[in-house]
Structures are given as C-alpha cells and as structure tokens.
Amino acid sequence: MDIIRIDNLEVYAYHGVYDEEKEKGQYFYVNAELYTNTRKAGMNDDLDASTNYGTVCDFIHDFMTKHTYDLIETVAEQLAQALLLEFKLVKSVLLEIRKPHAPIEKEFESVSVEIERGWHEAFVAFGSNLGDKEKFIDEAIEALSNLPQINIVAISDKIVTEPYGNVEQDVFLNGVMKIETLLPADELLQILQKVEEHAGRERKIHWGPRTLDLDIIFYDDDIISEDDLIVPHPDMKNRDFVLKPLMQIAPYKLHPVYRKTISDMYAELMAKKQ
C-alpha cells in the first residue's frame, strides 16, 4: 500500500481537560500517514485519481478547530474516523497528535497520541425462521447500511434451508453479506446484537427459532478466540446455509485456519452428504 505523508501540520485549537486550555487554546502538531493506492494517479498524472494532501490538511485544520475535546486520544480517534469517511481512496490512516504545551510542571518536548485505524473486510451471515422472515432480514440490512462505519459491498441471495440441530422448528431464510467496516470486531458484534434485539431476538433455546440471527463469519483474516466471539465461525465448515451463499459472493475467500477456499470447503461438505 502506498503512503501519502503529512508531517507536523500546525493547528491552533482548544482541546484539553482544563478550562484555561479550552479558553486560551494552544498549538497542536499533526502527523498523518494515509495508506492508499497512488498507482493510477502516478501513471496518469491525474489529481482526481489521488487524495489531495492540501485538501486533507484543510480538513484536519477545520476538524480540530471546529470541535473541542478534553483528551487528545479523543481528537485522534474522531479525526481518524472523519478522515476515513471523507476520503474514500484512503484505506487506513496512521495519525499522531502532538501537544507540546501540555500543562505539565516538568521539562518536556511534547506529549502525543498515535493511533492506526482503517477499513476492515467482514462477512456476516444472516438468518430468520420466525414471522416475516424476509422483512426481518431486509430491515437488518437497511439498519446496518445506515451506519456510516459500515459499507455493504455484496449480499448473497436469500436461500431457504432446513433447521440446523435437533430442535423442531420452521425452515430458515439464510444468506451472507460482505461488508467494509471501521468497527473493531467486538464493536461490530455489539452492533449486530443490537440489531437482533430490535428485531425481537430471544436467546432461549440453543439452535432454536429466532426472528433474526447475525453472525460474524470472517473479520479480515483474523483469528479471534474470546468468550463471546470466535472468528472464523467455528462451525461454518458444517453449515451449507453459510457456505452456499458465501459461494455466490466469495468463492475464493481463503479460510485463515483451514487454508482452504470457500469453494473447496463447500465441495467437501457436499461430498460428505452424498
């Protein structure tokens, strides 16, 4: 990935915990590395194919002067998100906010916060087998698409599948969507659970009926093992209602644990069922 770098952009702004900092202000210095692809711009000498660093500098200055925060951690977090939402060619950003005049009664050069944020690729499986199944799914997709931190890239067909497990219940409507998101995996999970709750999801019976089910199948190529989140989804290799719609939108996606493509995993599952 190519880098557009901005060093020591000076901004006079009003961030700080103390009232004096908010009233009098002080100088801040911003270092930014914008990770993007400059190939097309470089080959065609076309500014429209690149990210204009002058416009980025103006954006950073305006953002930091129009907003006031107590913490430079908050300045960095909010500015990074704003940059990624505004400049569509930028995939990630390394951002440092320096504060050389922080109210510290010791000799020092500056204090700073440095963070790296960017867009992540995730695959989310959806399903429903209670009530108006298609309505629950469509409303969930719309709710996610309305969040600025989520871009829906592709959605599979909705397929009718038999229930998984030993609980007697109605057939499911299932599918998978590919998204880009600024949210870390744990925050994405929280958003998905809120959407499920809005649809009236109740967790009473394991593998039981539900108005809406949203599961993170992949998050980048990360391997996550937490109490409330395991990614890639641990049972996806046995679930044709996950693999079949994934085949539509990402047949060559490589499973980071099994090192097999979705196409290969689906073929193996179908062979087992014969």
From TrEMBL:
UniProt-listed PROSITE patterns: HPPK
Entry-linked InterPro entries: Dihydroneopterin_aldolase (IPR006156), FolB_dom (IPR006157), GTP-CH-I_C/QueF (IPR043133), Hppk (IPR000550), Hppk_sf (IPR035907)
Pfam families documented for this protein: FolB, HPPK
SMART domains: FolB
All residue ranges annotated as the 7,8-dihydro-6-hydroxymethylpterin-pyrophosphokinase domain in the record: 206-217
Catalytic activity: 6-hydroxymethyl-7,8-dihydropterin + ATP = (7,8-dihydropterin-6-yl)methyl diphosphate + AMP + H(+); 7,8-dihydroneopterin = 6-hydroxymethyl-7,8-dihydropterin + glycolaldehyde
EC number: 4.1.2.25, 2.7.6.3
Pathway(s) where this gene product acts: Cofactor biosynthesis; tetrahydrofolate biosynthesis; 2-amino-4-hydroxy-6-hydroxymethyl-7,8-dihydropteridine diphosphate from 7,8-dihydroneopterin triphosphate: step 4/4; Cofactor biosynthesis; tetrahydrofolate biosynthesis; 2-amino-4-hydroxy-6-hydroxymethyl-7,8-dihydropteridine diphosphate from 7,8-dihydroneopterin triphosphate: step 3/4
Keywords: ATP-binding, Folate biosynthesis, Kinase, Lyase, Nucleotide-binding, Transferase
Function: Catalyzes the conversion of 7,8-dihydroneopterin to 6-hydroxymethyl-7,8-dihydropterin.
Similarity comment: family membership: In the N-terminal section; belongs to the DHNA family.
Protein name as annotated: Bifunctional folate synthesis protein
Lineage start: Bacteria, Bacillati, Bacillota, Negativicutes, Selenomonadales
